[in-house]
Write a structure and sequence with these properties.
The chain is α+β, with helices and mostly antiparallel strands. The chain has two domains: about 1-45; about 80-190, Ctag/Cox11 (Pfam 04442). Helix content is about 30%, strand content about 35%. It is built from two helices and nine strands. It has helices at about 1-45, 60-75; strands at about 80-90, 95-100, 105, 110-120, 125-135, 145-150, 155, 160-170, 180-190. The strands form two sheets. A five-stranded mixed β-sheet has the order 3-1-9-5-7, with no helix packed on it. A four-stranded antiparallel β-sheet has the order 2-4-8-6, with no helix packed on it. The longest helix is centred in the N-terminal third of the chain and has 44 residues, at about 1-45. The chain starts with a helix and ends in an 8-residue tail after the last strand. Belongs to the COX11/CtaG family. InterPro entries: CtaG/Cox11_dom_sf, Cyt_c_oxidase_assmbl_CtaG. This is Cytochrome c oxidase assembly protein CtaG.
Length: about 200
């Protein structure tokens, strides 16, 4: 009888210990999966102006359609748009990531080039992934990027500072209601691991 009572008294304590151990593990797992889950959510809903960075196959028909669309755009009158740039990182107090220009007044249908600077002040080689988004989100389909540091991961040596180019244009058929857009980049850092020789 005493043994049964002793087990019953211990049972709530055991359950509490299990909960205290499981909760941090679940939170860590949720944080680890947050970025890919967010990407999937944006892909499904089209929210937050997420861009599709996956490689695509370009065939002859795609090129013909692209040329036709470009010809149509050239017939549409160009108009001005203010494009603002913002930069953020998962650890803003460590990684020095910022746009060279806070905003540009651009004409649709014309190509522009700007830069973002990134500094790795640590003593380790780091790998950075840049995730772009645009606001309002529906404007994503009108922004054409021909060169962007977000197309591939960036590897920075210890103490290295780089200027990363961004070449883009807004299509002429961008709705005139979009008078001001915000193009944001957020970087995520991780230690660089490779068996190959680091540059």
């Amino acid at each position: 009888m005493n043994t049964k009572s002793h087990v019953q008294r211990k049972s709530p304590e055991t359950r509490l210990i299990i909960k205290l151990v499981l909760f941090p593990c679940l939170m860590f797992g949720f944080g680890f999966l947050l970025i890919p889950l967010y990407d999937v959510f944006c892909d499904i809903t089209g929210l937050n102006g997420k861009f599709d960075l996956s490689p695509s196959v370009i065939d002859a028909q795609s090129l013909i359609q692209s040329d036709t669309a470009l010809s149509t755009q050239q017939q549409i009158e160009s108009h001005q748009v203010i494009l603002q740039f913002t930069a953020a990182s998962d650890q803003q107090e460590i990684w020095k990531f910022q746009p060279a220009q806070s905003q540009l007044e651009i004409n649709t249908g014309q190509q522009y080039k700007t830069y973002f600077t990134l500094h790795n002040p640590t003593n380790a080689v780091m790998e950075f992934t840049a995730i772009p988004s645009i606001s309002p989100g529906l404007a994503a389909e009108f922004l054409i990027k021909t060169e962007c540091f977000c197309f591939q991961k960036q590897v920075l040596q210890a103490g290295e500072r780089v200027e990363m180019p961004l070449v883009f244009q807004l299509r002429n058929d961008t709705p005139k209601d979009y008078k001001k857009l915000t193009l944001a980049y957020r970087i995520y850092a991780a230690p660089y691991r490779s068996t190959a020789h680091v540059r």
